[in-house]
Here is the input.
Amino acid sequence: MRYITKTDLIIVARNSGYLMMGIGVMCLIPLIMDMIYFEFDILSFLIPGAISILLGFAFTKYFDDSGKKIRLKHGMMISSFAWFWAGLIGGLVFMLATHIPLTDAVFESVSALTGTGITLYENVEILPHSILFFRALEQWIGGLGVVVMVVSVLTKPGTVSSKLYQSEARDERIKPSVKATLKKTMEIYAIYTVAGILLYLLAGMPLFDSVCNTFTIISTGGMSIKNANIGFYQNNIIYFITIILMILGATSFLVHYKVIRTRGRSLIEDLQFKVIICVIAFVTLMLYFVSNIVPMDLLFTVVSAITTTGASVAPIQVMANWQPFVIICLMCLMLTGGSSGSTVGAIKLVRMITFFKGIYRHVREILSPEGRVVPIKLNGRKIPEKAISQSGNYITLYMMFIMFTWALFCLFGYDPFNSLFTAMSLQGNNGLDLGIVTHTMHPALKVVSMFDMWTGRLEIYPVLITLRAFFEIFKR
Here is the structure.
């Protein structure tokens, strides 16, 4: 049976055209920095931007989907293609501007867009300001979502907005309509971004650093403009500001929206936020008593791990020598992630909570009188059976991807323990690294790593659906 028709392809192509134009505009924004710092590298941004805009415009004009209804499968295919295209075009910028191989350039772009934050550049401090800003901008846009950003600007309210919003694994609504939800989400995101820049400036950070670091931290991306990451600044005030921004980025936008209306009560009452804070406090205290790590380094790394930011204050060489127990705890945090409806990656707390509540429900039903049905509730609402099974399915699939990547790294001769850490970091879009991911890595591992980051950001299913559709086209 054929699941993909010519009509499906037309719908995907036309709507992808709008996203391609948006991605092209993204490539042109860093020209502002290029002119401010007199770097005169206009073509490195103009060529990829023009290619994306012109192709996108051609798609919207050539393909006519009027009268054709967009479905969720279309949204997922459009979203997958948009992220793939954004990574490719962004990679072209890096290749033209810094003359690195295309594979490394696309890796850098995908890492930035997906909020993973691992870099293949040996020395980022020698990069042009325009490129450093472009990496930060990619993370800022990717944190909220490439599709979400473009949809909020280019599309009209309606079915298209709704399906594309769902395609990026988002279903929480601040307002009744998706378009209004996107607008309010953008407002909240912009407010926290401005606040972060101001706080960094007050702490003594230069303006350019403040802008780039805020972009990367509020988006829980963590790709720094310094080789030593946030540890470069050697300033506890900057560390605390970064910790606050990471937690804000890992908190649901719906909760942020309700904070003012409820005078902060929504933040205290939100189960996911309470779990994040409790886990951070418990794990930090526990590791403090079982290790000799500097307390600030420990707290910062714990927050960075659970929020999937990947920012660091401890050098990679130092982290690699931490006790195995500490690294295992960080892996558990990286696996979990923060709140749904935020900028984080990984499995996300709501799935973990739902999954374990399902297990507990099963135990209670066995112990209860025969025929009794034990309901499961989250934040006072009953969880549907479908949500419980979907959580279990996703976690299983997620772990399968990690196991495959782990095995592949081991096949290429890397240490099994460090390889597992890296596999979890890539799949969870975390970015904490123990020194395995470098420009010397085998090209096959770079490609697999990009695939992990791509699937991790889109929560796997949209990519699988797109690949299934792609293979079906070529079967004909």
